[in-house]
Amino acid sequence: QGQEKLSCNPKKENRTHVVLCELGNPMKAGAQITVDMELSVSGLEDMGDAITFQLQLRSKNSPSPNNASVTVTVPVEAQAEMELRGNSLPDTTVLPTSWQGVEGSRRLEDHGIKVEHVYELHNKGPSTVSGVTLRLAVPHQLGGHILLYLLELGTEGGMNCTHHPDLNPAQV
C-alpha cells in the first residue's frame, strides 16, 4: 500500500559481497510486496559488458522450497567523451619555390623547415578509458615526391606507439 525505505546492510560472505535488506516481520500469509532497488557499483571498467546479481528472498521463520535464488544480469556500458586537440609549430610555413633538398645530406636543415605537429587526446569522462587506439594518417608524399619528411614520433603519458615504416628513412 504505502512506500517505505528499506534498511540494508552490506557484508562479505564467502568472498562475495552481500547486501541484506529486512522487508518486515511479521508478514501475513499471502502478502505481496514489490521492491525497487538502486545499486551504485564502482570499478566496472574491467567487468566486461554485463554484471550479474543473485537475488534471494529468505524467511527466518522456516526453511522453504521457495527460497530459490534468481539471477539478474545488467548490461554495463562505460561512457567517456574523448577530445582530440592538435596544433602545428610554427602555425604557417611557406617554402620558397626555388628550394631544393640536398640529396644524401644528414643535416636537418637540408631537408626542409622543421614543423612539429602536437596532438593531445583528452578523456572528458565520466568514465575512465583503456585500450584506446588513435590512428593518425599523415600525407608524407605527393605525386611520388616527399611532401613531409617524417623525422620522429613520440608519446607521453604511458601510451604505446606504432611507428610508420617511412619514418626517417635517410636516418637524419
From TrEMBL:
Residue ranges of domain Integrin alpha second immunoglobulin-like in the record: 3-76
Key words of the record: Glycoprotein, Integrin, Membrane
GO cellular component: external side of plasma membrane; integrin complex
Compartmental location: Membrane
Keyword Protein biosynthesis: no
Single GO BP term: angiogenesis
Subcellular location, principal: membrane
Membrane protein topology class: Single-pass type I membrane protein
Protein's name in the database: ITA2B protein
